[in-house]
Amino acid sequence: MTEKELKKLNRFQLLEMIILQTEQIADLEKQLEETRRLLESQQAQVAQAGSIAEAALQLSGIFEAAQSAADIYLANVKVHTENADQIEANAQAAANQILAQARAEADTILRNARNQADTDIRSAKILLDETTRRCVEKENAVDAYISNIREAFHHQFQTLDQISKP
Fold first, then answer.
1. How far is CA 72 from the centre of its chain?
2. Residues of the chain predicted below pLDDT 50
3. pTM for the complete prediction?
4. Domain 9-164 belongs in CATH node 2.60.40
5. What is the per-residue pLDDT for 129?
6. Is 21 helix (H, G, I), strand (E, B) or coil?
7. How many CB atoms lie within 10 A of CB 161?
């Protein structure tokens, strides 16, 4: 709006313009807050992806549990049988088979969990980078818009002062 057009406006019209621009600033500040909340949510997802990786590392306890179960089985077999040597050999073979199967399953679970965690972390980082970029863009746009509005207010008030001076 030109200075000439501003001089033609009465005080009520100028106040309406100021109120409208104040409302626009409030709306932009709300949008900025929503964007910040979205960024925090994305950061929480990145942290959760790290928890998945930690859970995958805890699967190594499966080996210890399988070995413990095999040891208990062997002890019970020795106590309750007369032909301990043959049964022990069978039990050891069964224990080795159980242990090998548990290791294979644990390795598969661990590998899958690590792959999923890596995928989730990469996705979360990409999403976080994109969200951060958008937040910075919006924040810069809001800052520029607010700066322009402040300059316009300042200019309008200077014009009003000049108009109102006798």
1. 45
2. none
3. 0.36
4. no
5. 93
6. helix
7. 9
* Nearest by Cα to 70 from 25, 100, 114: 100
Q: Where does residue 165 fall: left (phi above 0), alpha (psi -120 to 50 degrees), or beta otherwise?
A: beta
Residue with tokens 């030109």: 2
Query: How many other C-beta atoms lie within 10 A of the C-beta of residue 117?
Result: 20
Q: Do 75 and 25 meet the contact criterion of CB atoms below 8 Å apart?
A: no
For residue range 59-73, what is the model confidence (pLDDT) as tens digits? 566 667 667 777 787
Tell which residue, 139, 143, 128, has the closest CA to residue 34. 139
Give the pLDDT score at 51: 65
Output b/e per residue, 32-65; b: 16+ Cβ within 10 A.
beebeeeeeebeeeeeebeebeeebeebeebeee
Please name the helix (run of DSSP H) or strand (run of DSSP E) that holds residue 77, with its range, or none.
helix 61-80
C-alpha dist (Å) from residue 154 to 83, 89, 148, 150, 151: 101, 93, 10, 6, 5
**CA trace torsion 13, 19, 23, 24 (10° rounding):** 50
